[in-house]
Design brief:
Elements: H1 7-13, H2 15-23, E1 27-28, E2 33-34, H3 43-47, E3 51-56, H4 58-74, E4 78-83, H5 84-87, E5 98-104, H6 110-121, E6 125-130, H7 136-140, E7 143-146, H8 159-176, H9 183-204, H10 207-217, E8 222-227, H11 230-246, E9 249-254, E10 272-275, H12 282-293, E11 299-304, H13 310-313, E12 316-320, H14 328-347
Parallel strand pairs: 3-4, 3-5, 5-6, 6-7, 8-9, 8-10, 10-11, 11-12
Antiparallel strand pairs: 1-2
The protein binds 5-amino-5-deoxy-1-O-phosphono-D-mannitol.
Residues 57-60, 104-106, 109, 112, 155-157, 240, 244, 360-361 line the site of 5-amino-5-deoxy-1-O-phosphono-D-mannitol.
Catalytic activity: D-fructose 6-phosphate + L-glutamine = D-glucosamine 6-phosphate + L-glutamate
Domain SIS: 42-181, 213-354
GO biological process, one term: fructose 6-phosphate metabolic process
């Protein structure tokens, strides 16, 4: 545990190294491209793909939702993201121009495995994005990429989520550079990936600020997380982390849905964590915060370093450094992991082994 009281905290602090391990030997900066040995044997089929369906569960599903934006931005593929537990019951039309990408830390999740088996039966190429070397999903997919993140012991997935997001960018870049992505666009992603470990360390150095905020927010029985675009999935992940280890009831929502239901929950006892980023959704997120504050809802905003408005409208803020738009979720999720961890610590729950949960779900 290297002096950490819990594996979860150790794994959160491992993340600069996790990113380095995910990238090591996999990027050619001058060509703005990635090299993924595990996909090499199927590269001809991969170049001819028209559609990619991402299947996964839990935190790995949230990585898939962010993966949709990454692939849509860097490739010309049509992308679907499906919970593995739902995918296998659909009436699917799969052929050799469709690949199914399974994302799994353990490589043993029963629903994800069943989805891959169903996809293979129907003739689709199957690709794995897995952490555990030699696991069943790694063995049963046609090709794949490992996270090389070492073991993740805490039941709450942290460093693997970050690793998955890094590798989704590398995979999309590999395909995208055969399609319309330019050299300069490729180089921009790679350079941003190279800066990530130090940016993550900067966030970790401010952990005490999140501990202070958690002391206040853990007193509320409920918590809403909102974001837009890629940050909708970060909101889902922040809510999953919090509910899973602290047992605080938490929901993640696309901020654009607030007026379609959830805003009726808001009062002075129902806090919201709002995720802002420096993109086209920024002004709409500020509006969302104002609407929540107008109904006396406490708001804690996670925003970027240069933002001047959030501190005027939210009760509390935490800033993360800015990076390439496609990598921003990697930085925004880290304060949410720490926030969930400290809330759970104040509540005295079993952080590494939450009640009723197992690290990998091998039985339906
Ligand atoms: O091993 P996998 O990535 O396939 O596991 C998927 C989920 O069971 C997992 O991410 C789960 O949601 C975590 N406990 C979340 O922290």
């Amino acid at each position: 545990l290297k002096g950490f009281p819990h594996f979860m905290l150790k794994e959160i602090y491992d993340q600069p190294e996790t990113v380095r391990n995910a990238c090591r030997g996999r990027m050619i900066v001058s060509e703005g491209v990635s090299v993924l040995g595990g996909l090499q044997s199927k590269m001809e089929e991969i170049k001819n793909l028209r559609k990619l369906i991402i299947v996964s569960c839990g935190t790995s599903y949230h990585a898939g939702l962010i993966g949709r934006y990454i692939f849509e931005n860097l490739t010309d593929l049509n992308i679907e993201v499906e919970l593995a537990s739902e995918f296998r019951y659909r009436r699917l039309r799969l052929d050799e121009t469709t690949a199914v990408l399974a994302i799994s830390q353990s490589g043993e999740t029963i629903d994800t495995l069943a989805a891959i088996r169903e996809a293979r039966r129907k003739g689709a190429l199957t690709i794995g994005l897995v952490n555990v070397v030699g696991s069943t999903i790694a063995r049963e997919t046609d090709c794949g990429v490992y996270c090389h993140a070492g073991p993740e012991i805490g039941v709450a997935s942290t460093k693997i989520f970050v690793s998955q997001l890094v590798i989704l960018n590398l995979m999309a870049l590999l395909i995208g550079r055969y399609q319309s992505v330019s050299l300069n666009e490729g180089v921009a992603v790679i350079k941003a990936l190279q800066n990530l470990p130090d940016q993550i360390s900067d966030i970790l150095a401010q952990a005490s600020q999140l501990e202070e905020l958690a002391k206040t927010y853990q007193k509320y029985p409920n918590c809403l997380f909102i974001g837009r675009q890629m940050h909708t999935a970060v909101a889902l992940e922040g809510a999953l982390k919090l509910k899973e280890i602290s047992y605080i009831h938490a929901e993640g929502y696309a901020a654009g849905e607030m007026k379609h239901g959830p805003i009726s929950l808001i009062d002075e006892n129902f806090p919201t964590i709002a995720l802002l980023s420096n993109d086209a959704s920024y002004d709409k997120m500020i509006n969302n915060i104002q609407e929540i504050r107008a109904r006396s809802g406490p708001v804690f905003a996670i925003t970027y370093t240069g933002d001047a408005q959030a501190e005027k409208v939210a009760d509390d803020i935490f800033r993360v450094p800015e990076t390439h738009e496609l990598l921003q979720p990697i930085l925004s999720v880290i304060p949410l992991q720490l926030f969930a961890y400290y809330c759970a610590r104040f509540r005295g729950t079993e952080i590494d082994k939450p009640r009723n949960l197992a690290k990998s779900v091998t039985v339906e």
